[in-house]
Amino acid sequence: MVMNGDLRVFDPVFTTATITGNHGLAIYDTLFSSNSKFAPKPQMIGKWGVSDNNKTYTFELRDGLAWHDGTHVTAADCVASIRRWGQADAGGRLILARAQDISKKDEKTFTISLKEPLPLLITILGSGQPLFIMREKDAARPPNEQVTANIGSGPLKFNEALAKPGASFTYDRNEQYVPRDEPSDGFAGGKIVKVDRVIWENISDKQTAFAALQAGEIDFFESPPADLYPVIETDPNLALQTLNKTGSALSVRINFLQKPFDNVKARRALLYLIDQEAFLRVMCPDPKYGRTVTSIFGNDTPYSNEENTHWFKTGGDPARAKQLFQEAGYAGEKIVILDPTNIVAFNDASQLLAAALRKIGVNAELAPMEWGEVVTRRANKGPIESGGWNIFITSNADYTLGDPIGTPALLASGDKAWYGWPRNEEYEGLRAKWADVPTLEDRLMLANKMQALWWDFVGSVFLGQVVLPIARRKSLTDIIGMTGYTAMWNMQKV
Question: Which of these, 109, 103, 126, 121, lies nearest to 60 by C-alpha position?
Answer without folding.
Answer: 109
